[in-house]
Design brief:
Layout (H helix, E strand, L loop, with lengths): L4 H5 L6 E3 H6 L4 H9 L3 E5 L2 E4 L7 H14 L6 E2 L1 H8 L11 E5 L6 E2 L3 E5 L7 E4 L2 E4 L1 H11 L2 H14 L3 H10 L6 H10 L7 H12 L6 E7 L5 E8 L4 E5 L15 H17 L3 E5 L7 H14 L5
Parallel strand pairs: 5-7, 12-13
Antiparallel strand pairs: 1-3, 2-3, 4-5, 6-7, 8-9, 10-11, 11-12
């Protein structure tokens, strides 16, 4: 194989390129096939390639590359949107990314499904679109509203909480929601945004808040701090101060790395046990749950209420 000099210069560049760009770099069709055979070039979709594809890429990263490749072959006038825009913005998804790229175009007509694109027809104002490294994508606020309209309440809350953590303003979300008042799913989007809270620090915490509400449990305080006897601050995901109960999704530790260099897994487990003991020594009960517990509202409710029952009596 004898690739051109520009091709060799771009070998470690992950940017997607269409075949015309490769030709401009001095790469012939036969060289494209040769680069593919040795794993130096990957066909992302028909007519679009990238150099040096990673071997341990996450599904989100793969979808982001696919979205960029798809964008290169779209006619002007739209933007990557919905769940695909969420991926490009770095917002968390529940489950795997979609198999097709979501695109919104402002022309009239209806959306359509295809092998690579899920097209939606909807108004797009100039402030609804941003440029992310050469790809037009719906803004954070518009992406949150679109996902909240079209996906589950859980997924809507997850992206809304994350967008608030990234700095999207409540005012931008409110304005975008007002513009979508007559769009399908607008009422669900309003419920999502009314419930969203930047205090949720992960997708698991966001879904936990939804389950707490669905179970009719008291509303917790988020990111609660407890000072132990030495004054050290211990952080917990949730707290019900009046019930002397704190809660954590998946047993996460909020201060320092759980497993420090040179420490074994058993050391980490013991450190977490000591942390739990320090929390309980201050008169609190710690209840933990995992993603599996969130699958059923009633089972989750039992986990939390058992924690309330175990907590020290409030005097």
């Amino acid at each position: 194989m004898d690739a051109g000099p520009d091709a060799l210069r771009h070998m470690n560049d992950p940017t997607v390129r269409d075949f015309r760009t490769l030709q401009a770099d001095g790469v012939t069709q036969s060289q494209v096939r040769a680069l593919q055979r040795v794993g130096e070039l990957e066909r992302v979709r028909r007519g679009v390639y990238r150099y040096s594809p990673p071997t341990d890429e996450s599904p989100e990263a793969t979808h982001a590359v696919f979205a960029r490749a798809t964008w290169q072959q779209l006619r002007p006038g739209g933007a990557v949107s919905h769940l695909s825009a969420a991926v490009l913005h770095g917002l968390p998804l529940l489950g795997t990314p979609p198999s097709r790229v979501w695109v919104t175009k402002p022309e009239g007509g209806h959306g359509r499904a295809g092998p690579a694109i899920h097209l939606r027809r909807c108004a797009l104002d100039s402030h609804d679109v941003v440029d992310l490294d050469g790809v037009l994508v719906t803004s954070l606020a518009r992406t949150v509203v679109d996902v909240s309209r079209s996906a589950s309440f859980d997924q809507g809350v997850v992206v809304a909480d994350a967008a608030l953590r990234l700095g999207v303003s409540a005012l931008d979300l409110e304005r975008c929601t007002e513009r979508s008042v007559h769009w399908p799913g607008a009422s669900r989007a309003r419920r999502v945004l009314a419930f969203a809270d930047a205090g949720s620090d992960s997708a698991g915490e966001s879904v936990s808040r939804v389950r707490i509400k669905q179970a009719g449990l008291p509303t917790p305080v988020l990111q609660w701090r407890i000072a132990d006897s030495s004054g050290r601050q211990l952080f917990t995901d949730f707290a019900w101060p009046e019930l002397r109960t704190v809660g954590e999704f998946d047993g996460k530790v909020k201060y320092g790395p759980l497993l420090e260099a040179g420490r074994s897994a058993s050391d980490a487990v013991m450190n977490e046990k000591r942390r739990e003991n320090r929390i309980r020594a201050q008169g609190w009960w710690l209840v933990r749950w995992s993603g599996a517990d969130l699958a059923d509202v009633r089972s989750f409710e039992k986990v939390i209420r058992q924690g309330f029952a175990n907590a020290p009596r409030v005097r």
